[in-house]
Structures are given as C-alpha cells and as structure tokens.
Amino acid sequence: MSYRVFYSTGVLAAIALISACSGDQATEQKRLEAREYYRTTNTVIPAENEIISFPPLPDTDSSRLESNPDRNAYFGDLHVHTTLSFDASAFGTTATPADAYRYAQGEAILHPGGFEVQLAQPLDFYAVTDHAIMLGLVNEAADTSTEFSQYELSESYHNINDSVDGGLFDMAERNLIFNHFFSDVVANLLDGTFDNATVNKVSKSAWIETVEAANAAYQPGQFTTFAAYEYTSSSGDKQNLHRNVIFRGSDSLPAVPFSRLNSINPKGLWDWMDTLREQGIESLAIPHNSNGSNGAMFAFTDWSGNNIDQEYADQRMRNEPLVEITQVKGTSDTHPLLSKNDEWANFGISPLRVASTLPSEPKGSYVRNAWQRGLAMAEANNANPYQFGVIGSSDTHTAAAALEEDNYFGKIGSLDATPEKRGSVPASFLYGTLIKLAAPEMIDEVDGETYLNFQNYKYWGASGIAGVWAENNTREAIYDALRRKETFATSGTRMKVRFFAGYDLANVQLDSHELIGTAYKNGATMGSTLQASDDRAPTFLTWAVADPNTAKLQRVQIIKGWLESGEHQEQVFDVACSDGLSVDPQTHRCPDNGAQVNLDDCSRTANVGASELKTLWQDPDFTAGQEAFYYVRVLENPVCRWSTWDAIRAGEKPRSDLPATIQERAWSSPIWYSASGENNYFVN
Question: Is 440 exposed, middle or buried (0-12, 13-18, 19+ CB in 10 A)?
Fold first, then answer.
C-alpha cells in the first residue's frame, strides 16, 4: 500500500512539474506577449507570392475514361491530418501523407497508440489537409539533423516521437507542446531569433511533400487525391474559423500555402484565392466546425463588424461554396435550442468551442440556421453569403479516418487511443486517483464510476464522409461536383442520396430507367436554385439507397426553411417510410418501424428497414412567391454508438449519460426555391 501511495504521489508531482514549469519567467513573458500579438495583429508574416510547378501527371485525360451522364456516387474525406501538422505530430502521429493515401485505399497503417488501423472498405477520394500554420515545423524541431532543430525552442522536441508510451507523463508533455509551440515560434519571430524565411523554408518543403504524395497516389478512374491544406484561424476568444482549401489541379501551385500567420481574417484567404484564380489556379475553401464558432462562422456582419453587402457575399460564395456539416468534433446541422420541433436535432452535439471549455452560442453556428440567415440577408439587401452545399469529413489527426461506430479509434493520436482515455469505460484506479487530485475538472462521476474527461472526447463521433455525384472518379469531375454543390454528407456510412425538384416531375415513373436523366433534364438538383414558375408548386424527387454493410434505412425527410414576417421558420416532413408504413398527413411523421438494438451485444432487430426509399413529394404548405430552401435528411435504423461498443468489449456497462445508440444519417445539399428570379450562386 505504501508503495502505491508513494508511486502515485511521485507521478502526480511529476505531472504537476511538467505542466507548470514549462520555462523560466522570461520565457513565459515572451509567450504571453506572442499570444497577445497574434490574437490582435492581422498579419504576423507577409504571404509568399512564389508559384512553383510540379511535373505533369501521366494519363490524366478524363475524356479517355468511361463517363456516366447520370453521375455516380463517390465517397471520400477532405479533412485529414498527418505528421506534418504541428498538433498531430505533437500527439504522436508519425504517418505521412503517403501513408494517409495508402490507408484510404484500404491498406493498414500504424496508429500512434501502437496498433494497426484499417478501413472496412476503401474510399474513392481523399485529401491530406495539414495545417498550413507551422507546416512541418514540429517534425523539423524533432529531427536533430535539421537546421531548425538547433534553435533553443526546438530542444524539448528532439526525437519526441521516437517513443510514444501514452502514459500520463507522455500525455502531459505532449499537451505542453500543443499549448506552447505556436507562441514559442511567434515569440522567436518577434525577437529576431529567426526570420520569416526560416519558417517558410520548412513549410515549403513540407508542402512539396504533401503535393507529391497526392500526385503519386492519384489513379484517375479509381482513386482521386487533391493538393489541399487547412487554413487555421480563430478569434481571440476561440471562435473557430477554420477552413480546408482544395485545389482543382496541381500543375502550378503556391510555394507556401496561405496561413493564419499571413492573416487572421478569412477575407485575407479569399483575396489570396482570388489572386491565384486570376493566374489560372483554381481552388475552393470549406469551413468546418461551425458548431464551435460561438456564432462567428455565420454572422450577420463581416470581420470588422460591418453589415454584409453584395460584394462580401459574392466573394465568400465564390470561394466557399460548401460547408463541412459533420465530423469527429460534432455535427453542425442544427441544435435542439434552434429546432425545438425537430425530434432528431440532438445529434452529434458538441456544445463547446474547439479546444476549449467555453460554451459555443448556437445561433450563427449551425448550418440550417445559416441558410435561414441567408434568406433574411437576401431579403434585406439581396446579399446571401450562405447559399452553400454540404459535405462531411473526419478531421482525423492520425492520417486514418475513424468512420465506423464499431471500429472507432479516436482522432487525437496517443491522447484518445484507448477507451479509458476517451471516457467510454471507467478509469483505472491509478489514473482516476491522479487526475482527481491534479485536475478534478477532467473527471466525470457517473453511475458510481470514475471516467476521464480529457478534451471532452465523450462528445465526439465516428464521422463523417463527403459524398459527391460525378461523371467519373477524377480530380476534374469530383472537383466540379464540389464546385456546383452536387454533394451530400453522411455521418460515416456509405448511403447514397439523390434530390431533385422541378415542375414536370409529378408524373415520372419511379421505376423508369430514364428517371435520373429526366430529373436532370426537367429539374434542379441538390446545390442549385429552382426558379419560380408562375404559381406552380414544384415536385421533389428523393432517392436514398442504404449502405449494405450497415443498418437499413428507416425514413427519408425533407426539411424546409423559410421566412415569415421576418422570422425564421422551419418544418420537418417525413416523406418516405420503411416497411410499407405511410406518413401521417397530420403529423408528417412515419410510424415507428420497431427497429431496436440489444445493448448486451449490439445486435439489431432483423428484417426491419429498407434497402432503398424513393418517392415524389409536394410541399403541402407551399406558398408561391415565398423564398425557401429544402434539403433531405435520411435516417438509418439505430445502431450502437462507439462508446457503447467500447464498453461492451471491455465488459462494462455503457455510461448512462451518453447516448447508447445513434441513428446514422445523411444530409443533402439544399435546393433553393427562388421567387425573385435571383440565381447568383449556381454553377452548371
């Protein structure tokens, strides 16, 4: 007993020492000054203007490939971090961009936790999006053979990933790296220890490695990759404003990607993208984790607090036609406080700002609310900056997307590599005791058990996937699908969703081989605008196909948003039910199909649900002349959540304060009904 006490006390003291004593007083003062500087100063270093060329890719002519005019569904992930991201490297990730692309194609790779991870089925496309800010710098500091490793700030990072034990000492040290590295780099820039060229040199080298890995893995017609990265910005109070930037091609690209060091204001990024576009370098940006933006992502004003005008709206939509609606750190469809009559609104809710314990304001943070705000802004001044489509992606920081509830291995490398660290099973006596004493706010007491609550991992999910409808699996076709917003998102499964609207679809035959061709010819598809036609009510075509490897479909819904006397309004309509059930015309809901989950082993009710659901629908409350948007949400039968799988495999009972089951789902991009004749942001 005395040994256990001594050991625990010693470990606790060491953790406290590591956490508190990360530098002398002068170093800490420099860090404080650096943090204040980059929180309040728009530009830390000027953007690079150099353009570099990459060797042309062989056999990339998509015209040689079979093309489907009715378009195919392709599934991918456009938000992936590797060892070149400062935080991923700090958390023990050693997988490279090349490793990430091997994983996406179905190969097993090594997780920082020391085990192999592998997808149940390969993806169709993938993009490594390492943070542009400090790109490659932690690895450069760790490698003692490099010039950057010789600076004093690099000493504590030498060979950091030679050994990843995942213990409390290791976790404490890695959290310090994450917390201090950025401010240390900025402090060294400010005092002249090194200059802009030093940072840009490292970032340029890492960026070239990223692009070369994407080009090497690209297989037109089979597997698509993109040159891409993440622009990482936030306000001083941690309002998340991050974006992933996806380039259409890779022949000519900027030598150094635009980062937070170049501008804290996202408009700086858009200006840079516009300048590149004038030089023939096409790209788009995809905001993510709006749920953690505290209302800043979809505000009524611009960065300076001015009302949004047409010029701002045009620039934002030109550069940001899409939003990431779901990922590991939460789903941003809607919030129960915003959609009180939506029984399925409480899904994937992560209530905090990113990397913070501060709450995030729902208004201005969720996608459905943003679409409603866009209608209001267009009504006020004809400027709608929020007429965007949706995708899902993972935001993995291990190079490997954890997309499956029954195979979830976290996202933060060594920090959430085990069920105990994720808070899905009770903490060990040692960990529980130490954390209670050192950081009681990182403990949850539930059902008489002690659970770790590191970084609120308990809120995270095995999500998500980007779906596109494209003629073939090439960069050109998939990028163009992203640009025209013919996209959908899923929470991790491979269900397919189609959505059309038109005035000549009411009598189409749902079993016709010409169905999709007719819909394209006579209607508008997801992501586009349907113009008013006198007082005619449009007909909507929805078609959802289940992922054969997961649960079957329960229902298809169409969600409508509009304004009434200046107030936001919304309505959820069930439009197709499984198992031969019919929608109640009064409640607009399908009856319960009886699908259940056995929490002893996660088995599901057999022979319940649909392999596909297809229907034609008209809005019973349609009002001619009323601007509106419509989008599809598809719900599967319930399955065990990842936390329940963790508990069952460990022989533990699932936590009572977490959802035991979830309903995996998909969301389409909207179709906007325009009574005004405006169609500013639809690209054919």
Answer: exposed
Domain ranges of the chain: 41-54+72-151+194-411, 415-459, 493-674
Residues in the chain: 684
- Percentage of the chain lying above the pLDDT 90 cut: 85
What is the pLDDT, as a whole number, of residue 39?
Answer: 86
Say yes or no to pLDDT of 627 above 80. yes
Dist. CA 381–CA 527, nearest whole Å:
22
Q: Maximum Cα–Cα distance for the chain, whole Å?
A: 85
Per DSSP bridges, beta strands 389-392 and 322-327 are parallel
Rounded distance between C-alpha atoms, residue 215 and residue 450, angstroms: 48
CB under 8 Å to 165, separation ≥6 — which residues? none
Residues 6+ apart with CB under 8 A from 326: 332, 333, 348, 392, 461, 463, 464, 489, 490, 491, 667
- 639 phi, psi to nearest 5 deg: -135, 165
- Residues whose CB falls within 8 Å of the CB of residue 162, separated by 6 or more in sequence, listed in order: none
Residue whose C-alpha is closest to residue 515's, from 37, 71, 1: 71
Residue 20: pLDDT band (50, 70, 90) is: very low
583-594 tens-digit pLDDT: 999 999 999 999
3-state DSSP: the chain helix, strand, coil percent, rounded to 5? 30, 25, 45
With contact defined as beta carbons under 8 Å apart, do 683 and 484 qualify?
Answer: yes
Q: Are 633 and 586 in contact (CB under 8 A)?
A: no
Task: Kindly tell me if the per-residue pLDDT of 468 is higher than 70.
Answer: yes
Torsion of CA 392, 398, 401, 403, to 10 degrees: -100
1: confidence class by pLDDT, cuts 50, 70, 90 = very low
The whole-number average pLDDT for the span 470-496 is: 98
Taking the C-alpha atoms of residue 421 and residue 14, their distance in angstroms, rounded to an integer, is 19
Beta-sheet pairing, 125-128 with 224-225:
parallel
Cα separations in angstroms, 337 against 343, 345, 351, 361, 365: 11, 9, 11, 10, 12
Rounded CA separation 260/240 (Å): 12
β-bridge partners, 498: 543
Answer whether the bond into residue 166 is a cis peptide, omega within 30°: no
Residue 677 has pLDDT above 80, yes or no: no
What is the structure's pLDDT at 60?
Answer: 59
pLDDT at 582 over 90: yes
Q: Which secondary-structure segment (H or E) carries 185?
A: helix 168-190
Q: With a cut of 60, say whether residue 7 has pLDDT above it.
A: no
Indicate whether 166 pLDDT > 80. no
Tell me if 483 sits within 8 A of 94, measured CB to CB. Answer: no
CB 127 within 8 A of CB 80: yes
Coil, strand or helix at 90: helix
| 51 bridge partner residues | 254
Rounded to whole angstroms, what are the CA distances from 174 to 34, 85, 90?
A: 20, 14, 6
Token match 């195979």: residue?
A: 407
Tell me if 545 sits within 8 A of 612, measured CB to CB.
yes
Q: What pLDDT, on a 0 to 100 scale, did the predictor assign at position 234? A: 86
Mean confidence (pLDDT) of the chain: 93
